[in-house]
């Protein structure tokens, strides 16, 4: 029997998530490091306003969903421009509305989410070649998609707040798992928004890690929907976040983008920053990069000399993209 059959069968019997004792991690048990990026200026005639950065084989990919073509390829070592591809249109190797916030890899290809279609893509002769188109059909937006083995996907729950906080999807069918935190007053869309999280997961991993945006909380689930542990940071200020602060922009996020590698999970962490500041002054705000193990242990904390919001990690190197400096890529050797 295939693994997804086991998963779906088990999830049918998991009607609620068993509450776990919260494991507390003292942020001050890991010393904050201060590091300096190497800065590479890239050819401004080849790029306009990249929104996301990814890596594949010997390439850095910059995603520009609003331009045409939508993907530019740069040398991994020198960050020199190579070519652009991913033209918009209805042709066999063209895209419609590619999203930069989803990216997965195989040995010889990568995956992008184009509207609600996952496209498997390879690079050939300085162009992209679409190998497979897989529609992901749910009655809602797709958020925080994780590509698992055997065509299984995990994603955030419905934006209406109905059901549970994750969907597990296979071949047009899905079930849900994970209990929302209601705080005694949240329901509907407000419940989904206030419990928004950034999910780290990989095909070869048997767990996912959820880093909550507005809560001091990390949850670890296995791919069968079982809550394995909850983690919160000690030694940090209580932000006193409530839903109404989202409406006026005064809410203070704990987390930003996460990125997963085979041995570590990288997460952006914020202190003393409101949503208003993050979205209006993003080019001035320097996050803390936290490096976690898949077991939920905090390994490193790094503060860099430049602000950034998007990044990727390959071969133990961090490649980061700023908000206000689209023609610079920041690089740091993680092992230093």
UniProtKB/TrEMBL annotation:
<dbReference type="Pfam" id="PF15869">
    <property type="entry name" value="TolB_like"/>
</dbReference>
<protein>
    <recommendedName>
        <fullName>6-bladed beta-propeller</fullName>
    </recommendedName>
</protein>
């Amino acid at each position: 029997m295939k693994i997804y059959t086991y998963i779906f069968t088990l999830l049918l019997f998991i009607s609620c998530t068993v509450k776990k004792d919260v494991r507390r991690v003292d942020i001050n048990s890991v010393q904050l490091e201060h590091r300096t990026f190497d800065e590479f200026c890239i050819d401004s005639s080849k790029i306009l306003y990249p929104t996301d950065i990814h890596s594949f084989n010997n390439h850095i990919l910059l995603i520009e969903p609003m331009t045409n073509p939508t993907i530019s390829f740069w040398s991994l070592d020198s960050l020199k421009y190579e070519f652009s591809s991913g033209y918009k249109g209805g042709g066999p190797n063209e895209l419609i509305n590619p999203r930069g916030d989803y990216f997965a890899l195989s040995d010889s290809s990568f995956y992008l989410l184009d509207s609600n279609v996952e496209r498997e893509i390879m690079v050939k002769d300085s162009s992209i070649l679409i190998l497979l188109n897989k529609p992901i059909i749910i009655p809602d937006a797709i958020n925080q998609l994780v590509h698992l083995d055997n065509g299984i996907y995990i994603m955030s729950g419905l934006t209406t707040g109905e059901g549970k906080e994750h969907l597990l999807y296979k071949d047009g069918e899905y079930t849900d798992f994970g209990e929302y935190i209601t705080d005694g007053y949240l329901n509907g869309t407000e419940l989904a928004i206030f419990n928004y999280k950034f999910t780290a997961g990989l095909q070869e991993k048997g767990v996912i890690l959820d880093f909550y945006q507005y809560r001091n909380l990390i949850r670890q689930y296995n791919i069968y929907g079982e809550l394995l542990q909850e983690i919160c940071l000690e030694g940090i200020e209580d932000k006193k976040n409530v839903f109404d602060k989202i409406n006026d922009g005064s809410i203070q996020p704990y987390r930003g983008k996460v990125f997963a590698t085979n041995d570590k999970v990288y997460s952006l962490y914020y202190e003393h920053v409101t949503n208003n500041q993050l979205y209006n002054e993003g080019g001035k705000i320097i996050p803390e990069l936290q490096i976690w193990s898949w077991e939920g242990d905090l390994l490193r904390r790094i503060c860099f000399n430049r602000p950034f919001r998007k990044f990727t990690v390959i071969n133990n190197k961090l490649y980061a993209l700023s908000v206000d400096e689209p023609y610079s890529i920041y690089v740091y050797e993680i092992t230093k």
